[in-house]
User: Fold this.
Amino acid sequence: MVTARGRIDKRQAILDGAFTVFARQGYAQACVQEIADEAGVAKPTVYNHLTDKATLFRHAVQAAARTSLDQRLAALEPLTDPGPDLRATLEEVGHRLVLLHADERSCALRRLLHSEITQFPDLLDIVVESGPQRLSQALADRLARLALAGRLRVTDPDQAAEQLLALLVGPLEARSRMGTRQIGDAELREITRAAVRTFLFAFGPADA
Assistant:
Protein backbone atom coordinates (compact mmCIF):
# COMPACT_ATOMS: atom_id res chain seq x y z
CA MET A 1 0.00 0.00 0.00
CA VAL A 2 1.38 3.43 -0.97
CA THR A 3 0.67 6.11 1.63
CA ALA A 4 -0.09 9.71 0.74
CA ARG A 5 3.29 10.70 2.17
CA GLY A 6 5.01 8.06 0.07
CA ARG A 7 3.24 9.27 -3.06
CA ILE A 8 4.30 12.85 -2.41
CA ASP A 9 7.90 11.79 -1.79
CA LYS A 10 7.92 9.74 -4.99
CA ARG A 11 6.51 12.63 -6.99
CA GLN A 12 9.20 14.92 -5.58
CA ALA A 13 11.89 12.39 -6.48
CA ILE A 14 10.53 12.30 -10.04
CA LEU A 15 10.53 16.10 -10.30
CA ASP A 16 14.07 16.33 -8.91
CA GLY A 17 15.28 13.61 -11.24
CA ALA A 18 13.53 15.20 -14.20
CA PHE A 19 15.10 18.59 -13.54
CA THR A 20 18.55 17.01 -13.27
CA VAL A 21 18.14 15.21 -16.61
CA PHE A 22 16.56 18.17 -18.43
CA ALA A 23 19.33 20.46 -17.16
CA ARG A 24 21.98 18.01 -18.35
CA GLN A 25 20.44 16.93 -21.66
CA GLY A 26 18.00 19.64 -22.65
CA TYR A 27 14.35 18.91 -23.33
CA ALA A 28 14.71 17.29 -26.77
CA GLN A 29 17.48 14.89 -25.79
CA ALA A 30 16.08 13.85 -22.41
CA CYS A 31 14.12 10.59 -22.28
CA VAL A 32 11.59 9.45 -19.70
CA GLN A 33 13.49 6.23 -19.00
CA GLU A 34 16.57 8.22 -18.04
CA ILE A 35 14.41 10.38 -15.77
CA ALA A 36 12.94 7.27 -14.15
CA ASP A 37 16.45 5.90 -13.56
CA GLU A 38 17.59 9.21 -12.05
CA ALA A 39 14.55 9.25 -9.74
CA GLY A 40 14.91 5.59 -8.79
CA VAL A 41 11.42 4.62 -9.98
CA ALA A 42 9.94 2.53 -12.78
CA LYS A 43 9.10 4.29 -16.04
CA PRO A 44 5.31 3.65 -15.69
CA THR A 45 5.46 5.36 -12.29
CA VAL A 46 6.63 8.57 -13.98
CA TYR A 47 3.61 8.50 -16.29
CA ASN A 48 1.29 7.71 -13.37
CA HIS A 49 2.36 10.92 -11.66
CA LEU A 50 2.86 13.17 -14.70
CA THR A 51 1.10 12.20 -17.88
CA ASP A 52 3.66 13.08 -20.56
CA LYS A 53 7.13 14.50 -21.12
CA ALA A 54 5.99 18.08 -21.72
CA THR A 55 3.89 18.11 -18.53
CA LEU A 56 6.82 16.62 -16.63
CA PHE A 57 9.11 19.33 -17.96
CA ARG A 58 6.80 22.18 -16.94
CA HIS A 59 6.27 20.76 -13.44
CA ALA A 60 9.98 20.07 -12.95
CA VAL A 61 10.89 23.63 -13.88
CA GLN A 62 8.13 25.03 -11.68
CA ALA A 63 9.25 22.91 -8.70
CA ALA A 64 12.86 24.03 -9.15
CA ALA A 65 11.77 27.68 -9.34
CA ARG A 66 9.70 27.33 -6.16
CA THR A 67 12.57 25.71 -4.27
CA SER A 68 14.83 28.53 -5.40
CA LEU A 69 12.24 31.10 -4.28
CA ASP A 70 11.87 29.51 -0.82
CA GLN A 71 15.64 29.70 -0.31
CA ARG A 72 15.73 33.36 -1.37
CA LEU A 73 12.78 34.31 0.85
CA ALA A 74 14.58 32.68 3.79
CA ALA A 75 17.66 34.76 2.94
CA LEU A 76 15.62 37.96 3.48
CA GLU A 77 14.72 37.10 7.09
CA PRO A 78 17.55 39.12 8.73
CA LEU A 79 15.93 42.29 7.32
CA THR A 80 12.91 41.70 9.57
CA ASP A 81 15.05 42.71 12.55
CA PRO A 82 18.32 44.07 11.14
CA GLY A 83 19.85 45.30 14.39
CA PRO A 84 21.86 48.52 14.69
CA ASP A 85 24.16 47.91 11.69
CA LEU A 86 21.87 48.04 8.67
CA ARG A 87 24.77 48.04 6.20
CA ALA A 88 26.14 44.80 7.64
CA THR A 89 22.70 43.18 7.52
CA LEU A 90 22.15 44.26 3.92
CA GLU A 91 25.56 42.83 3.02
CA GLU A 92 24.70 39.57 4.78
CA VAL A 93 21.41 39.30 2.91
CA GLY A 94 22.96 40.37 -0.39
CA HIS A 95 25.77 37.85 -0.07
CA ARG A 96 23.30 35.06 0.56
CA LEU A 97 21.24 36.12 -2.48
CA VAL A 98 24.22 36.19 -4.84
CA LEU A 99 25.37 32.80 -3.54
CA LEU A 100 21.95 31.38 -4.36
CA HIS A 101 21.87 33.09 -7.75
CA ALA A 102 25.28 31.65 -8.62
CA ASP A 103 24.66 28.06 -7.50
CA GLU A 104 24.49 25.31 -10.10
CA ARG A 105 20.76 24.67 -9.80
CA SER A 106 19.86 28.33 -10.34
CA CYS A 107 22.24 28.58 -13.30
CA ALA A 108 20.74 25.41 -14.78
CA LEU A 109 17.25 26.83 -14.36
CA ARG A 110 18.18 29.99 -16.25
CA ARG A 111 19.89 28.00 -19.02
CA LEU A 112 16.78 25.86 -19.45
CA LEU A 113 14.61 28.96 -19.60
CA HIS A 114 16.80 30.54 -22.27
CA SER A 115 17.10 27.39 -24.37
CA GLU A 116 13.49 26.17 -24.26
CA ILE A 117 11.48 29.43 -24.21
CA THR A 118 10.67 29.19 -27.92
CA GLN A 119 9.14 25.73 -27.61
CA PHE A 120 7.52 26.50 -24.24
CA PRO A 121 6.45 30.18 -24.36
CA ASP A 122 4.53 29.75 -21.09
CA LEU A 123 7.76 28.83 -19.30
CA LEU A 124 8.62 32.44 -18.52
CA ASP A 125 5.30 33.00 -16.75
CA ILE A 126 5.80 29.78 -14.77
CA VAL A 127 9.25 30.84 -13.59
CA VAL A 128 8.43 34.50 -12.94
CA GLU A 129 5.32 33.60 -10.93
CA SER A 130 7.38 31.25 -8.75
CA GLY A 131 10.52 33.37 -8.56
CA PRO A 132 11.75 36.91 -9.25
CA GLN A 133 8.42 38.71 -8.96
CA ARG A 134 7.61 37.28 -5.53
CA LEU A 135 11.17 37.80 -4.31
CA SER A 136 11.02 41.46 -5.35
CA GLN A 137 7.66 41.89 -3.62
CA ALA A 138 8.96 40.33 -0.40
CA LEU A 139 12.06 42.52 -0.46
CA ALA A 140 9.93 45.61 -1.13
CA ASP A 141 7.83 44.82 1.96
CA ARG A 142 10.94 44.69 4.15
CA LEU A 143 12.36 47.89 2.68
CA ALA A 144 9.03 49.64 3.27
CA ARG A 145 9.13 48.66 6.94
CA LEU A 146 12.68 49.98 7.24
CA ALA A 147 11.57 53.24 5.62
CA LEU A 148 8.71 53.57 8.11
CA ALA A 149 11.24 53.10 10.91
CA GLY A 150 13.31 55.96 9.47
CA ARG A 151 16.23 53.74 8.48
CA LEU A 152 15.88 54.22 4.72
CA ARG A 153 14.70 57.04 2.45
CA VAL A 154 12.39 55.00 0.25
CA THR A 155 9.28 56.48 -1.35
CA ASP A 156 8.71 53.61 -3.80
CA PRO A 157 9.63 50.28 -2.14
CA ASP A 158 8.92 48.26 -5.29
CA GLN A 159 11.38 50.34 -7.30
CA ALA A 160 13.97 50.25 -4.52
CA ALA A 161 13.73 46.44 -4.33
CA GLU A 162 14.12 46.13 -8.10
CA GLN A 163 17.18 48.35 -8.02
CA LEU A 164 18.85 46.51 -5.15
CA LEU A 165 18.33 43.17 -6.88
CA ALA A 166 19.65 44.64 -10.14
CA LEU A 167 22.77 45.92 -8.37
CA LEU A 168 23.39 42.43 -7.01
CA VAL A 169 22.49 40.31 -10.03
CA GLY A 170 23.63 42.51 -12.92
CA PRO A 171 27.39 42.36 -12.21
CA LEU A 172 27.07 38.69 -11.29
CA GLU A 173 25.56 37.79 -14.65
CA ALA A 174 28.28 39.71 -16.49
CA ARG A 175 31.20 38.32 -14.50
CA SER A 176 29.93 34.73 -14.53
CA ARG A 177 29.28 34.93 -18.28
CA MET A 178 25.63 34.01 -17.73
CA GLY A 179 26.48 31.26 -15.26
CA THR A 180 29.20 29.55 -17.30
CA ARG A 181 32.10 30.81 -15.14
CA GLN A 182 32.35 30.00 -11.44
CA ILE A 183 32.92 32.99 -9.18
CA GLY A 184 34.79 32.69 -5.89
CA ASP A 185 33.40 33.87 -2.57
CA ALA A 186 35.78 36.84 -2.33
CA GLU A 187 34.47 38.19 -5.63
CA LEU A 188 30.86 37.55 -4.58
CA ARG A 189 31.46 39.57 -1.42
CA GLU A 190 33.03 42.36 -3.46
CA ILE A 191 29.94 42.48 -5.69
CA THR A 192 27.71 42.53 -2.61
CA ARG A 193 29.61 45.33 -0.86
CA ALA A 194 29.55 47.49 -4.00
CA ALA A 195 25.81 46.89 -4.47
CA VAL A 196 24.96 47.79 -0.87
CA ARG A 197 27.23 50.85 -0.95
CA THR A 198 25.46 52.18 -4.04
CA PHE A 199 22.02 51.29 -2.66
CA LEU A 200 22.64 53.12 0.62
CA PHE A 201 24.07 56.12 -1.23
CA ALA A 202 20.71 56.41 -2.98
CA PHE A 203 18.34 55.26 -0.25
CA GLY A 204 20.19 55.52 3.07
CA PRO A 205 19.08 58.00 5.74
CA ALA A 206 20.19 61.59 5.14
CA ASP A 207 22.44 61.64 8.24
CA ALA A 208 24.34 58.46 7.26
